[in-house]
Amino acid sequence: MSTETAAAAAEVAAPPPAGWEEARSRVYAVGLAAALPTIGRSLAEADGHTLAEPLATRTDLPAFPTSSVDGWAVRGDGPWRVVGRVLAGQTPPPLAADGSTVEIATGAMVPEGTTAILRIEESARTADGRVTGTPRPVPEWREPGEEAYAGEELLPAGTPVDPAVIGLAASCGYDTLRVRRRPRAALLVFGDELLTEGPPGAGRVRDALGPAVPAWLRRYGCQVRPADVVGPVADTLPAHVAAVRAALADADLVCTTGGTMHGPVDHLHPTLETLGADYVVNTVAVRPGFPMLLARLVGDDGRVRFVAGLPGNPQSAVVALVSLVAPLLAGLQGRPMPVLPQVTLAEAVPGRGDHTHLALVRWDRAAGTAHPVRHVGSAMLRGLAGADGFAVIRPGTSGAAGDRVPLVPLPLTTGERAW
Q1: Displacement of CA 356 from its chain's centroid (Å)
Q2: Given 332, 359, 393, which residue is the final one in a domain?
Q3: Stretch (H or E) spanning 35
Q4: Alpha helices, H only, 297-374
Q5: Residue-range definition of the domain harbouring residue 226
Q6: Cα separation of 160 and 416, whole Å?
Q7: Of 120, 351, 354, 406, whose Cβ has the fewest other Cβ atoms within 10 Å?
Q8: Beta strands across the sheet bearing 71-74
């Protein structure tokens, strides 16, 4: 059979592309079913992981009545006789007698028997050393449990761990957290025509995805080492099979760039067949980025691994990342499927017939509006560099100015939750 005949037969046999929303749901479900193991991490090591268990308080917060100001803890009516001082970190004796006071620092434990706290700047001293002033009517201390009661769930499992979560965990008394292991990812760059340094020319183009995709993957919570980026891989089937097999030895997810169609040097599909992979999604009805795919493999050790085939055109590859890779990684990390925010189109955005159109936009968060950007061809990156995400124009529709549509935000900082 000729190359042209084989390619035509493959196209005829291929199933219809999955709808974009269906594809997202499908890959999230297989990721969640293969969620990564839970491990213990110290607070210093937990950043970027995902809570595997709910975060609950170990004590009331605060655990004891705590002064909100520097001043005087007083009992009864003044003027008050000074009987001591209490600083943060101390356990004071009770105020036993009316007319007595202790100097108190912000954050210090309020003595039992205190009826009010007088701010230092609103107090005065009499000639015999007593304290006078008028306490404010609102108590100037925090009650136990004011923030949370012991055992109360503060954050659910699946919450990404960031500095705020780490600080909250520390305030609750945690030294370690149970988290999901971070996914390990690798990238294989396909294409003999690619240059890895210098300007393009003489029929060869610069590889833009080799440097960029690992950075996107890290923003979705992956571990990607420099050694995990391989390529360009030679445009032969044996080279592709060897490269994918080697990458799968350590990685939970292997991303590839290019080779997702059935051309004369597109070897990804035969490679996946050789390795015994099952397709989760094989092409998606979305523009740009239609020839994306996700395949699932089970190793001899029983561990599930995934291969994400990203199209070779740079913007199409990013569409595949936000469409397939991001929801897969959310599932693998035990995170919930994020709800896409709604935005108002500032200008009209055309539809793409029976395909979903992901249109690059700049997101004015304050106004809630999405503004289409220029230079958005599937091979272009200029528009992407100035965009905040993709407006979703559903199949069979077009977007008019003023329409409310979903937005797929780009993760613009490492560990950002929205995607």
Answers
A1: 24
A2: 332
A3: none
A4: 314-320, 326-332
A5: 3-36+182-332
A6: 9
A7: 354
A8: 81-86, 100-104, 71-74, 116-119
Same domain? For 232 and 304 the reply is yes
What does the alpha-carbon distance between residue 108 and residue 102 come to, in Å, rounded to a whole number? Answer: 11
Q: Are 133 and 74 contained in the same domain?
A: yes
Phi, psi of 60 (to 5 degrees): -60, 150
Could you tell me if 205 and 303 lie in one domain? yes
Please tell me the pTM assigned to this model.
Answer: 0.85
- Domain assignment present for 381: yes
What is the distance of C-alpha 184 from the center of its chain?
Answer: 15
Lowest-pLDDT range of 85-94, 173-182, 243-252, 375-384: 375-384
Q: Supply 166's token pair.
A: 């780490």
| AA identity, residue 400 | A
The conformational region for residue 191 under phi > 0 = left, psi -120 to 50 = alpha, else beta, is left
The values of phi and psi at residue 122, to 5°, are -110, 20
Strands 342-345 and 369-372: parallel
CATH number at residue 123: 2.170.190.11
Per the structure, how many domains does the chain have? 4
User: Using CA atoms, how far apart are residues 138 and 36, in angstroms rounded to an integer?
Assistant: 50
CB atoms within 10 A of CB 353: 11
- Does residue 75 sit within a domain? yes
Task: Say how many Å lie between the first and final Cα of the chain, rounded.
Answer: 44
Point out the domain boundary residue: 142, 170, 203: 142
d(CA 78, CA 123): 11
* 49 part of a folded domain: no
Which of 338, 344, 340 is closest to 372 using CA atoms? 344
3-state secondary structure of 183: coil
Tell me how far apart the alpha carbons of residues 116 and 75 are, in angstroms, rounded to a whole number. 7
> Which residues contact residue 249 at a Cβ distance below 8 angstroms, ignoring those fewer than 6 apart?
none
Q: Are residues 198 and 286 in the same domain?
A: yes
* Residue 98 pLDDT greater than 70, yes or no: yes
Query: Could you tell me if 121 and 79 are in contact, meaning their C-beta atoms sit under 8 angstroms apart?
Result: no
**Burial of 373 per CB tally in 10 Å (0-12, 13-18, 19+):** middle
Q: Are residues 382 and 299 in the same domain?
A: no
**Is 340 in contact with 392 (CB distance < 8 Å)?**
yes
- Assigned token pair, 232: 């360009």
Element (H, E) at 277: none
pLDDT, tens digit, 9 for 90 and up, residues 170-225: 999 999 999 999 999 999 999 877 766 677 777 776 778 888 999 999 999 999 99
